[in-house]
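BUG: 3D viewer hangs when loading the predicted structure for this chain

Environment: internal workstation, default settings.
Expected: structure renders.
Actual: progress bar stalls at 90%.

Input used:
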Amino acid sequence: MELTDSGFLVIASDWDETIALALAERSQIKLTEAHWEIIHFIRDYHCKYQHLPNARMFVKAVQKQFGEEKGNSRYLHKLFPEGPVRYACLIAGLPKPPGCL
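Structure tokens produced before the viewer hung:
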């Protein structure tokens, strides 16, 4: 598993759920069904639109797909406290999202 300096997977096609577990562990995130739901969602989003959303677009897209209970910043920050878009993308094996430092 080759990673960038920021911890993102270099070769996206190397990704599988075992890699996701390793990336989550490196980020000190214990994956639950709720995490997997968002991880698979962001992978599908990226595949469909060929880009990654910014934070605001991400929340709105999650809300459209899963409803207001999950499509809000508080819920997403509970899953990924250090940054929902960044860590969802990182664990999903996607590139570093726009605007992430």
